[in-house]
Amino acid sequence: MEHNYKKKSQLADVWNRFKRNKMALIGLFVLIIMILIAIFADVIADFESEAIRQNLVNRLQPPSAENWFGTDEFGRDIFARIVHGTRVSLQVGVISVGIALFIGGFFGAIAGFYGGATDNIIMRVMDVFLAVPGILLAIAIVAALGASMTNLMVAVGVSSMPVYARILRASVLSVKDMEFVEASRAIGAKNRTIIISHIIPNSLAPVIVQSTLGVAGAILATAALSFIGLGIQPPNPEWGAMLSSGRAFMRDHPHVVMFPGLSIMFTILVLNMIGDGLRDALDPRLK
Predict the structure, then answer these.
(1) How far apart, in whole angstroms, are the C-alpha atoms of residue 203 and residue 169?
(2) Distance of CA 51 to the CA centre of its chain
(3) So what's the pLDDT on residue 12?
(4) 8, 42, 101, 172: least buried by Cβ within 10 Å?
(5) What 3-state DSSP class applies to 183?
(6) C-alpha dist (Å) from residue 162 to 25, 137, 168
(7) Which CATH number fits domain 34-52+69-286: 3.40.50.11740, 1.10.3720.10, 1.10.150.120, 3.30.420.40?
(8) CA max distance for the chain
(9) Whole-angstrom Cα distance, residue 27 to residue 32?
């Protein structure tokens, strides 16, 4: 009972510190709205009739009361495509970071806890991944596996995996010699129990911050891969692919690329604001 109360008290402290950062609070509010848009995308705009179906008579129309963001080169409603693109971007961002966190976090925790030869082997493998720029590694993976949403999430996740491995390893190294870990060993707890129940929960603060920023990076990587034709395939709406297909018309019809570009920029900004707020809220030196 006391442990639960202490946990609630710590969460309340983190929330109170987070609330002091007004920009982070605004970012969280906007992110909640974006998540709701992604969930209710089909209610806001019909996928088949507005986001996918072509209407060449209505092509390249400027923003109006009927089409809030105008129409693209195929006469499709840009607002509807932005709305459904929100679902795609958030889904890919969150799942790819989940893949990176699960794989990288697992190996990072093992390396930090056991040390020695295990640590050296795992971290040298991670160094090999880090030697290749993330976006190039993602391009290579998608090119090898084929362009699809699943392969895109795997590619972005694997390319960012070493970052989470290094962060969790560093956190585990700072936690594993603390008194509560020694006490668990003294009562005969197994290594697996110690890692899962004690070390990882106390090493999550920097990982949570990196995950928030990582979702922003994953969305940007997804847009970049879709821009060069290796991401979400047409006619499915994705912000990077919308930028790519609309760039030929940007001089005479700037709205075709303006709204997808603003969507990417705005989402990255919001996630970075939340990440900064979480970093300050979870920093023990600010308690």
Answers:
(1) 9
(2) 24
(3) 79
(4) 8
(5) helix
(6) 30, 12, 10
(7) 1.10.3720.10
(8) 76
(9) 9
In DSSP terms, which residues pair with 77 in a beta bridge?
71
Predicted pLDDT of residue 13: 78
**Do the beta carbons of residue 75 and residue 55 sit within 8 Å?**
yes
- Residue ranges in the chain whose pLDDT is less than 70: 1-10, 283-287
What residues contact 107, with CB distance under 8 A and at least 6 apart?
122, 126, 165
- Quote the DSSP letter at residue 146: -
pLDDT at site 2: 44
pLDDT at 236: 83
- Given a contact cutoff of 8 angstroms between Cβ atoms, the answer to whether 195 and 109 are in contact is yes
CB neighbour class for 237 (10 Å; exposed up to 12, middle 13-18, buried from 19): buried
User: Could you tell me the residue ranges of all domains in the chain?
Assistant: 34-52+69-286
Q: Which residue has the tokens 């089909």?
A: 42
- DSSP state letter for 98: H
How far apart CA 287 and CA 278 sit, in angstroms, is 13
Distance CA 37, CA 35 (A): 5
Question: 122 with 114: CB under 8 angstroms?
Answer: no
- Which of 257, 255, 232 has the alpha carbon at shortest distance from 244? 257
Q: For position 281, what pLDDT does the model report?
A: 80
Q: Which two tokens stand for residue 103?
A: 């794989």
> Cα(51)–Cα(268) distance, rounded to whole angstroms?
23
